[in-house]
Design a protein that fits this description.
Keywords: Membrane, Transmembrane, Transmembrane helix. With about 350 residues, this protein is mainly β. It has a domain at about 50-170. The protein has helices at about 10-20, 25-45, and strands at about 50-55, 60-70, 75-80, 85-90, 95-100, 100, 110-115, 125-130, 135, 140, 150-155, 155-160, 165, 170, 185-190, 190-195, 200, 205-210, 215, 220-225, 230-235, 240-245, 255, 265, 270-275, 275, 285-290, 295-300, 305-310, 310-315, 325, 335, 340-345, 345. The strands form eight sheets. The protein has a six-stranded antiparallel β-sheet with strand order 1-2-3-4-5-6, with no helix packed on it. The longest helix is centred in the N-terminal third of the chain and has 21 residues, at about 25-45.
Length: about 350
């Protein structure tokens, strides 16, 4: 009986080809597929994919659009009209939210965020409005008129009837702007505001009997009108902060330039530091050296050198004003002239 024919032996090269091109067994496919699905599910559960884009609505109000992978609705984070910062208000379809809280009274098409800034001396507000209401932190402010409600400056708002500050109004007898005239109320620079009758400093909640027409805020320390120069004054344990009239000429009074210059002023006769006259200082040659630190500043003119330490000045006797200069990188002294070395205005050698 003849033996059945045997298959020809596979060459080494052919054997290698078969090994490389054969698919793996099906169970390997299933295991790899399973691991892949688990990994994708974990990633989708842990992360939400967002992208941002800026659009401009028909009323020229910029909005941040957030589109998430967890839903088909676009969620709009409203941008404050005062400074383009992001507010806590959101529009999603026909609904408006403050954070995650639905504002049931809101009219979505006309809803805009207005301001998040803190008014001087106060806390942040979250002002917004639509055609029907004004809102603060998502709550309706019943007394406010939405058609005339606008930002004055940094969280200070007004409508046709009132000025709004710290969530209250100028109708409140406890308010620093009690009785203010809404129609003429404007920001006057720094922490100052004014109407047709008065000037107000909201940082210290004070009403100044200054002339509102000619009033000019020079810095947080100084202001003036046609009649007087006003300087911020505060002495701990003596009284509350206030702006007092100082014996300066408003026609020639000006503040100094530079990092620390707004605390110093001069007219044709005197130099002033923190509202006080520096006796004998020369207005023309007076200069302020760069502050040594937050507590110490040296100033000088052609006649003398002065040290200002914690807002109190002392004249440095026998200092050579021409060669007097600051010294950096020394722990033992902070200034020197051709004769001496100084620490906080005191000669040490």
């Amino acid at each position: 009986m003849e033996e059945p024919p045997q298959p020809a032996p596979v060459s080494q090269d052919e054997h290698k080809t078969l090994v490389l091109t054969d698919p793996p067994p099906k169970k390997h496919h299933l295991v790899l597929w399973g691991f892949g699905m688990v990994a994708i599910a974990i990633l989708l559960g842990m992360f939400e994919f967002n992208y941002w884009r800026i659009v401009t609505t028909t009323d020229n109000v910029s909005e941040n659009i957030i589109t998430t992978s967890q839903g088909s609705e676009e969620r709009v984070q409203l941008v404050n009209t005062e400074d383009d910062s992001r507010s806590s208000y959101y529009r999603e379809g026909e609904n408006v939210y403050f954070g995650d809280d639905l504002i049931s009274e809101a009219d979505s098409p006309t809803f805009v965020a207005l301001s998040i800034k803190a008014a001087a001396g106060g806390n942040d507000n979250e002002w917004a409005k639509d055609k029907n209401h004004v809102y603060d932190f998502g709550k309706v402010i019943e007394e406010a008129d939405p058609s005339t409600f606008v930002t004055v400056y940094r969280g200070v708002m007004k409508d046709k009837n009132h000025i709004w500050l710290y969530g209250g109004t100028s109708a409140n007898p406890e308010s620093p702007i009690y009785g203010a005239d809404s129609a003429t109320f404007v920001h006057a620079g720094f922490d100052f505001y004014k109407d047709k009758n008065y000037v107000y400093n909201l940082e210290i909640s004070e009403k100044l009997h200054a002339d509102p027409i000619t009033f000019s805020a020079l810095s947080r320390m100084y202001a003036k009108d046609i009649n007087n120069v006003y300087a911020y004054w505060y002495k701990p344990l003596i009284g509350s902060p206030t702006y007092k009239v100082i014996d300066a000429n408003p026609n020639t009074f000006q503040i100094f330039e530079g990092e620390y210059g707004d605390s110093f002023g001069r007219d044709q006769s005197h130099v002033y530091a923190f509202g006080e006259i520096i006796e004998g200082a020369d207005p023309l040659s007076f200069q302020i050296l760069p502050p040594v630190n937050s507590h110490l500043t040296y100033v000088k003119d052609v006649y003398a050198v002065y040290a200002y330490f914690n807002e109190r000045y002392s004249k440095i006797n026998n200092a050579d004003t021409l060669s007097f200069s600051l010294v950096e990188g020394q722990e033992l002294y902070d200034a020197q002239d051709k004769n001496h070395k100084y620490v906080q205005g005191v000669i040490i050698e």
